[in-house]
Amino acid sequence: MEQNNLLEVLSPAGDMERLYAALDFGADAVYLGGQMFGMRAASPNFTSESLKQAADEVHKRGKKIYLTCNTLPRNYEIPSFEGFVKDAVDAGVDALIVNDIGLFSLIKKYAPNMEMHVSTQAGIVNYVTAREFYNMGAKRVVLARELSLEEIAEIREKTPPELEIEAFVHGAMCVSFSGRCLLSQYLVNRDANRGECAQPCR
Fold it and tell me: pTM surpassing 0.90?
């Protein structure tokens, strides 16, 4: 079987209890958040010490661990990012899940050997964008959640086979972010991303 045909079941893990549950019930990999730069604020998340403990447990079982840095950080947060990346490297995480292009460039600077996955927050909905992230150094792209199976198949067909593609099979469907709201599309079939928004927010 070709490597690209192998599926990886990836599960969130908000703390050590959930991490053990994910691994015990068959996850091939887990993703989790640290104390900064992650969009999983409702979870306890991981300190640098518990991140190392989590990575050791995951690797002991032959699985993989990914750390999110998928927020859009403001200026005041940037100076803290180098330490965040250093903690990830020291813990031995297998990849960082990143959204912001600036953070993407800083990861390449601070940890040039770190694998990078582009977050679903980046809103990748076409093969050109997926290819460009690959050219920038991404190992994997996590596609936008609103894509159909046919659209995902076309992205797969038109991107390098070395680029890994991830898609959500369960989870929330975000409805609003700066002109990319889905409410108009679902309510009246007018796509905000095509300039047709019916402005249900008003």
Answer: no
